[in-house]
């Protein structure tokens, strides 16, 4: 097994092929020809680019930071090889909103009329991560009370004195 380069009779070979070497033996005047049938195998050099959210697993290793990482191994030809990973880790940005309001609240195009926890999934531009925003909503309702009152010459309601019959409203 030869990987990347083979040296034979002082010559370095980097490609497969058939090579000859002519030489004369010391005790003879005859020329001898040696033939080399050479197969060169090459190591693998692979490069990968990956975007991920929060973490990424590559060759059973967890990565949670952007960077360039290498993995050394022996390829199928038995030669030393290296894979290179160029990794961009994007962090998602989850946000919590706490809102207390009266009667109804509109958030991300949806109108809510009851208290509760509501989520909104979205991807920020330029990111591959899904962000989850959570709305913790408390809805308070206004009171709508109706009173019927019979009175003599006058009636006092919320510090206002009424002297005529009618329908009156008070907003608080």
| Count of individual beta strands | 16
Number of helices: 0
Helix-strand category: mainly beta
Mean pLDDT, as a whole number?
A: 86
Which strand order does the major sheet show?
A: 5-9-8
How far the N terminus sits from the C terminus, by CA atoms, comes to: 92 Å
Kindly provide the radius of gyration, computed on alpha-carbon positions and rounded to a whole number of angstroms: 42 Å
Biggest sheet architecture = 3 strands, mixed
**Share of residues in strands:** over 45%
Task: Classify the helix fraction into a percent range.
Answer: under 10%
- Coarse morphology: rod-shaped
Order of helices and strands: EEEEEEEEEEEEEEEE
Low-confidence regions? none
Would you write up a description of this structure?
- The termini are far apart.
- This protein has no helices and 16 strands.
- A hairpin with a 2-residue loop joins strand 15 (155-157) and strand 16 (160-162).
- The model has no long low-confidence stretch (mean pLDDT 86).
- The protein is mainly beta and 172 residues long.
- The strands form 7 sheets. Strands 5-9-8 form a 3-stranded mixed β-sheet, with no helix packed on it. The protein has a 3-stranded mixed β-sheet with strand order 10-14-13, with no helix packed on it. Strands 1-2 form a two-stranded antiparallel sheet.
């Amino acid at each position: 097994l030869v990987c990347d380069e083979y040296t034979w009779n002082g010559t370095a070979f980097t490609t497969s092929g058939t090579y000859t070497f002519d030489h004369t033996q010391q005790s003879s005047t005859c020329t001898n020809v040696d033939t080399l049938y050479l197969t060169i195998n090459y190591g693998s050099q692979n490069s990968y680019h990956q975007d991920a959210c929060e973490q990424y697993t590559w060759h059973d290793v967890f990565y949670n930071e952007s960077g360039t990482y290498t993995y050394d191994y022996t390829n199928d030809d038995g030669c030393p090889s290296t894979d290179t990973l160029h990794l961009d880790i994007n962090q998602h940005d989850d946000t919590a909103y706490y809102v207390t309001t009266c009667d109804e609240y509109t958030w991300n195009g949806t109108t809510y009329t009851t208290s509760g926890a509501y989520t909104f999934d979205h991807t920020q531009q330029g990111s591959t991560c899904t962000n989850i925003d959570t709305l913790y909503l408390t809805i308070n309702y206004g009171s709508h009370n109706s009173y019927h009152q019979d009175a003599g010459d006058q009636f006092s309601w919320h510090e206002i004195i009424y002297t005529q019959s009618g329908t009156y409203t008070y907003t608080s």
